[in-house]
Fold each of these.
Amino acid sequence: MRGLALTATLVAAASLTTAPAHAHEGLPSHHCVLNGAEVPPGQEVFGTPGDDVIECENDVENVIIWGGAGNDNIRVKGLIIDSQVLGGDGDDRLQTSHLLPREGQASIRAGAGDDTVIVPTVMGTTDNGAAVYGDQGADTITVGTVSGSPGQHARGGGQVFGNDGADTISAGVIDFGGRVLGGSENDVIEAKGVGPEAGGVIQGGPGKDTIRGAKDTVLLAGPGWGLVDGGLDEDRCKVQHANPERARSTIAACP
């Protein structure tokens, strides 16, 4: 029953956070190139209906980058400051530097298709969130540290969502309230640790999920208040308490 309750709570929270936020109202800043041509200054960097290459050399701030239709390659070498990077339709590759929400939200949305997302850190605050969404399709999401507790209505904090499709999510340490949620199908979630100092959450959701440590090792929950919940269906887990004698972590629905 505890696993079912956790599943319902976290799936509901994910549905509240899937609507993309607008870029924070402020002076937009970017230096981006679309298919070899420099993009004029402004709040929007939009691709074409075909396959695009969008490259941004520096930080992007208060900007929306959207690949649109086609198999797009979007690379942002600087910080994602109060901005969104949206893959759109197609099998896209989105690679950015750190998500940095200052006055608004910083997020990556892969969109429809089998996408690849690479982000070094997903670190938000209660008021200003950093989030990665796989959306539809079988996505491969690779992130580093995930941290930051969500605030009211599960908004804010540092969060990674697989959403729809059989996704593979590889994360670094999930702590200080950070959350990784698989989604609706058979997902694979790997992490280097969950809740080693404070608390973090991994939740598989519906589907036959696999939850384990990095490179198919045993994932340690704790010694802080880590939570690993396989969710519904029959899951495969390689998870154990970091401190079995004085376990503060929780492992649920995860045989």
Amino acid sequence: MSAPGVGFEYPAQEVSWQKRDVLLFANSIGCKADELHFLYELHPNFAVFPTYPLILPFKLADQEVTDFYARSKATPIPGVPQFDYSRVVDGQRKLTVLKPLPTTSAGRTFELRNKVVGVYDKGKPGTVVETEQSIVDKDTGEVYSKTVSSNFFVGQGNWGGPKGPSTVSYPPPEGKSPDAIHVVQSNLETAHLYRLNGDYNPLHATPEPGAKMGFGGIIIHGLFSWNSAAQGILRELGGSDPNNLREFQARFASPVKPGDKLITEIWRTGNFHNDLEEIRFVTKNGNGKVVLSNGRSIGQTPRQRLSCRRLPAATSTKANSSLPARPSREDPFVARSALQPFVDFETNKYNNRYTALKRTPEGHEGLYGNFWLRENCQCSKCIHPDTRQRIVDTFSIPSDAKIERIEYTADGAEVLWLDGHQSFYPFTWLRLHANGKKIPLDPNMMAIRFFKHQPPSDPFPPAVSYSSVMEDDRALWRWVEAIVIYGYCFVQGVPVDPESTKSLLERIAFIRHTHYGSGFWDFTSDLTFKDTAYTSEGLGAHTDNTYFTDPARLQLFHLLSHTDGDGGTSLLVDGFQAAKTLFAQNRNHFHTLAEIPQPFHASGNEDTCIQPAAQVPVFNIHPQHQRLFQIRWNNYDRAAKTDWTMEEQMKWYDAARAFNEIIHRPEMQLWTQLEPGTALIFDNWRMMHGRTEFTGKRRMCGGYINNDDFMSKYRLLEFGRQKVLDNLGNNASLSYNPNYRY
């Protein structure tokens, strides 16, 4: 050996992974819902994120937690000191992807082959151990990836070893602004999630090791920062295509604390070789301190993009017809599901009817139509300050509305129109309303919206107390939030009388009137209304109001009494969870129930024959967000459909039968015996309900609440009135957008 430890080969070790490991890794490094091919195992293009090989030397073939320290020092390197692995941090990683990994190793044998490249004594600061790790198919000898890794053993130097060569530096281009910026906000649990991939170093889980090493407590894995930067670069410049990342490296410059923001600035160099471009990047924390340096990536990127010119940086400018700059990915108001990553506005579509305005104090710009801007002026002459309704006569504005002058303040843009009208547009408003080119949404890649599913086996269903809800708006917020998240909630301690139950419902909104009466029901099984619900018969899982154009969103039941009999156990089934199961089981069935509409009706009473304005499918897909948001499933109220082909009939019945089988599975069903004093409220657009047959006399009360009234209450409690007003008209698929909650 030419130097201590160099050339030493560790014994080959088997590595293996399952699809769930691949999904966990993609989730833990920040892959987004519109990168479904990394997050959904039944996606037609399901793939391993290309940097996953880096986790395999930690995970090996284990599916259980391992002892990081014991495993790390199991095989000492000959000729060098035995280092303390309780004081080791990542130094640098360089990954070369030679071949994509399969989504599971099942049926094949893969090995980790690991050899020492160098052991370098850096004096008092510590020692660097550099290794080359290859993931190899044992049977064929094919090499899938190679990783050159350096680990830094803190304070373990001065043992007389070689200092090692200087490393090659890859600084960002001088004098050039980043071509893209990717932002990741970590939280206190980031490291705890990432470590489940197999990197169980206690340094990232408990504060004691970090305190001993001078970090002051827990730090996030360096490889989390490294992998999240790779995810950002592939997303921003590679279209999230795993084949577009071939090589990736970065040096770990400083530790990242839980809660730090990671900002990756990305530069295209224009240096191509075999259609692969060299990318440089730097990752900093929110205070501007570099955490990843020497960042370099090799991959496939677009050869050309339209160049975009910024408006002058001066505080005052004439209306300008130049093209706007691409929105920075640092700006959280640019929603990927609504806009392309870099919005290129074609020159031939830009004229003096459009204007580029700064939408942030930092100078990020957006494109706005002149007439649209004038019509949506936010001044009190155009928008009523109390009602927030438009009071300007839209069609009294000249169709060729022209801007005379634009001036910027610390808070927004002041616009003087040629007709003398003055407008002020706050930056917060401009950020939320910039125009962009929409991405066509592929129904075959549809993401189904799910909040938290409450397993029927969970012994602690969501519940609140009547007194707290009636007395405290914070408790009211927790109640409506539980309904949104879980789809249902119990209310305990309700006085056993209809008046108190009615007051409880009215804490959310007014009660909906229907053909069943004045809105609030108080009934027994006497068939006063000709509906199966007014009998003592058992009812299968269903949603109510399928026959209304706008079904009620919420439904509440409160059992006031049950005498001289038993039975009547209530059933809940999470329709979204059932739809998700169907989607995974047979995507064609899911789309059939989302595409073929059905007729519904309510015709039990002589003076009633209600039908929706149009036939509707079982699964209602949001037209902008392409996500499931409503289920209509009621076999009792479905009428005989005639306007379909024989092929459509067979497809629909096959799909409906499959869905019906799913909702009858025991693991899908939550059974509960209602009791006087405990009310049950649920989301009728999501949860199906039913009951068993009963004997005796039951008295039940309750009512419906409309969707719009419920969501108004929820949004105001969750976000506050100002944020709701700021986002009027904003349809971006972002978690902080009140309009994305429906």
Amino acid sequence: MAKKGNSGENRSRSSMSVFIIAGLCCFFYVLGAWQRSGFGKGDRIADLVNRQTDCSILSNLNYETHHGNGVGIDDIEEVNEIKPCSDDYIDYTPCQDQNRAMKFPRENMIYRERHCPPEEEKLHCLVPAPVGYVTPFPWPKSRDYVPFANAPHKSLTVEKAVQNWIQYEGNVFRFPGGGTQFPEGADAYIDELATVIPFDNGMVRTALDTGCGVASWGAYLLKKNVIAMSLAPRDSHDAQVQFALERGVPAVIGVLGSIKLPYPSSAFDMAHCSRCLIPWVANGGMYMMEVDRVLRPGGYWVLSGPPINWKNSFKSWNRTEEELDEEQRKIEEIANLLCWEKKHEKGEIAIWRKRENYEYCRNQDSQPTVCETTRDDNVWYKKMEACVTPYPEVSEPDKVAGGAWRPFPDRLNTVPFRISSRSIPGVSAETYKEDNRSWKKHVNAYRRINKFIDSGRYRNIMDMNAGLGSFAAALESPKLWVMNVMPTIAEKDTLGVIYERGLIGIYHDWCEAFSTYPRTYDLIHANGVFSLYKNKCDPIDILLEMDRILRPEGAIIFRDEEDVLIKVRKIVRGMRWNTKMVDHEDGPLASEKVLFAVKKYWVVGENNSTSSQ
């Protein structure tokens, strides 16, 4: 039997091993930095060695920050604990609060629009989850099943029973895929649309579904690799948007009312209304003109249900022939005024297509009123107008205004027309490509820290300051989708670029609450958000809103300057979050750091301490 070695000798060898490993790590870190700088040779060899000696995977790596003034978590003063809200606020939507809404006019659905609380009425507490809350089912099972405890609202199971919207079965809701216009399921309905609209070749990628219900149309379109922004108000159909997001389908609370939709011009490849009850002919056709604004040249508009083909259906709709005939006639007139081409009418479905440019329309007898404003997409809280947003100019009559369509996923990384045409000052094709490269590197670093990013654990993801959409592009997968948010105070408005890439997003001001229910996102990415909003609004309000919309056990990734993140970390220690600060991928000398956070699981009635352990 071999003798055991001397313990002192073992300690000496162990110490020597640590020094050798540390030395190798430092050496290859410097070597890697040198070869990445452009001066080093033998890039492939250095890259191979770096991967084989990747110090980031060592289990004992210290992820604490090593840059700045040496301020650590232990140097921060006592934590200010933020208390839970009462159970009255489990489904609280601050800017669509039902009680506040009733104080506003019903004309043009103004009372269903955003009405945020004044500063003195803002909640400063943590919105709780309901008792029994569980992690949603993974996609694609979540499309068809939602745990009852997560959204315990049964009214739609009764009201929409014959239309197969939703059924209550034991401890889950089941979504058979039906809708008011497709009670037998969305698949057959989508197949009929596909006889006119090119879903299968990737040319149609982004869609807007107005009056979406529980978003079954958008849910089943995902099989065609089409992503829909589903839109519905918070009204008597309680929790329809909440159900959509619990299913893992993109949706926001919203309405076609008196203000413009929070999307850029020429954004969507198609728009859809399936018995959405929007008065399309009201206000001189203003709502159809707003759809025209957000449709790309060449985009499609689908209208199914009243008044289409009313002669065969008016009795079941409980409306008079005269009323329906007048409504369809006016819709046709407005569509002609907008120079849309009618492509299809069969049964209760009609499809129009917006012209690819305005050249064809110049000679028509009736010309619409053109909006006086420029193509600037400053639409946040701007009044909707009964006027037409001009097409982008074209150099030749056969060109597509705003650039030719590219199929998805090719368009994801192709330089968008808004950039190649130099429509966005300071953003060139090269800066776009470099942005893509940078975010691929950042996302790969995130994956090394959080192994669940690509696993399907995070279905609903939000990027609070989306830039060119490169974070979402680096993550692109059928397992997830990203809501790309363009802050209204961002230096450059690039939301149109994001849509050109085949991604979706929305304008928003983070000094206010987002248009969604609590607990609707699995992962939130906040790049430079707190530097952007410095001295604009209270960071505590932004963090409380992030907590409201994040699911229990959801994750947040902050990327910002170290001094900013230290302040953020101080606040969130009192919010039932666990945190970990790590260095920038380029090393500890970079002033930018990354803060990872995970929201703890807790439900209403649990009064445990919020302090981080």
Amino acid sequence: MATKQQQSAPTPTRPRSTNGVIKGTKAGTGDERIVVIVFGQGQDRIVPVFADVLGKPHRMATNFSSVRNEDHGTVIGIAAGDAKVDIDSRNRSLIVAINAHCVALGMPPDLNLSASTDYEFLYTETPFFRRDLSRFISFILGQISHHEALITKPRTYFISTTFPDVRTALSNLDILSVGSDAVEIRVDLLKEGLTDGTFNSVPSLSYVGEQVMLLRQRTELPIIFTTRCTKENGRFPMDNPELYYEYLYRAIQWGCEYVDVEVWLPEDIRRRLFEQRGNSRIISAFHDFSGTFKWPSLQAQNIFQESRKYGDIVKMITIINTMSENYELEYFRSQIKANNPDGPPLSAVNMGQLGQLSRALNTVFSPITHPLLPIVAAPGQLSAAEINGALATMGQLPKKNIYAIGTFRSTPQATFFEKCFNELGLPHNFASVDRGVKGSVEAFCLQPNFGGAYINPPLSSSQPYIPMLSDAARTIGAVDTIVVRGEGQSSTLIGDNATWKGIRATLTRDFAPSAYKDRAAIILSSNGEDAASVIFALRSLNIGKIYTVGFKAHGPLAAGVEPFTSVESVTKSDTPFAIISALPPEKTHLVQPLLRYFSNGRDSRGQGKVFVDLANGPRKGDPIGVAEGCGWTAYGVADTSAFTTVETLRLLVGQNVPYSFVRLASGRGLY
């Protein structure tokens, strides 16, 4: 297979945390080059969709040389035929080029365009998954990053889709990925059917690209792109290292968050991939199936040092012969951590039944399986529930009492938590209790086996029995999650706020974080307390001026917040990009006139875009229906509650439950 030599593109700026938020508070600007979309014949309508997701205007151009500095802030579209003329001579420091290809056209992407552009977005028109585009463009431009958040978790897991065609997995993917922090696509296990009934020895790039597209359309989890060779329990041939480069570099172009690069590949290939990885992360992988590898050896140390040269994560997997080798691995792991405090993190497990102990003790990207998978990706793999059960048996996961505290109607997540605990195999007891009289929350917190609590409505952040607060809880002034860190006498209670993260995740579901930068927003609420999480979420996205209806902001959130005082002040305001209603259900109809008024597009970047209704209960009027009828992208409390539940579970038990599973288990499937 012919390979076109890739040219190194500038590495985009990387944010420091997940979902476009740096250190949990502010969205990063990321790659600020001009976005140019190369589109196929008759596919020019994808350009305004890219622009809308980014919150920018767009225009068409006839070639790359016509793109100038003054086009910053505008998305440019160039037809594929025109782009070929000067794409290789484009100003790479000014332009980031994306090849957008609709797979429904019945032909693969143009290989020259695929190789020449910086990135490639594959999509379907019917249905069209806008959130897939939002995630793709936000990630490749460095506005979101899962990695910095994941490496701070006490434990991370990934599940491997061992299907010959990922379509087989899609119907169960919501359940398969419970407990996983990422999902791996094993490219070498894919089977591309040929017209004669046989299978391609190596699946084509177009087939693999479509498989990645299908997987990303159905999961919000980061994707690990893996091509395992025949020597390492895979099916990719070893006689053509450039073939690996071609596929692995294309994974970077497709926006895969992690790319697995085997350490046996020539150093030049590993170096090129590392230098060209953009916002993707490289997992430098070593596997040994000989049964002769020893952890307490110079070879093991040398392999780690070689792997770390071009890896953001080092993965070492071996076959062992005795149980004691698990303890040798743990000593090796402790030495690596002590001698390499700045990383990269080490993911290391022993295969086979004898090595299952190491799978339970590994804390970095442990590979897991699930009963619904057709085969395990490697011998001895355990499910997330089995690992949690093993940890509980060893005393590494003590049984705790975790609570949902509040009224039954105001804690719709409570019934779902038990389902998650069961699916994850967690040993904890979960109870939903009424808050009761003043001081009752403190009584729960002082119990010896207290493991944390979700509180709705939230507490004031000034509780003497909660000695530590997150920045969000302190600024918002409300605690909706109490987290326990440490064990026994050294344990500490931390007050946190998950609601703002749920709101922010909703706001960025169909729009990139940069779409909100310096734009106006309107918040309606009966009081400042109910609006505080909304203000904090908008501030994290670098929103511009915030207008308020029904309340005045006070304290640290008051800067840049201006109340509407009259009809005249409404008419003189900037067109809001977002309107968020925190009004109670009986008052939600009051937002409808604003939705209608601001649907006319009074500024150069178009009409208002996003409406969120946080009311929980029977509404007066139909604000979401009005918003959708006026062209707004509308979300209800079910969306924000589901995202908040995801964040709450991460805080309480350190485990990931996908948004799609939350919606599925709560009675409404996403697809």
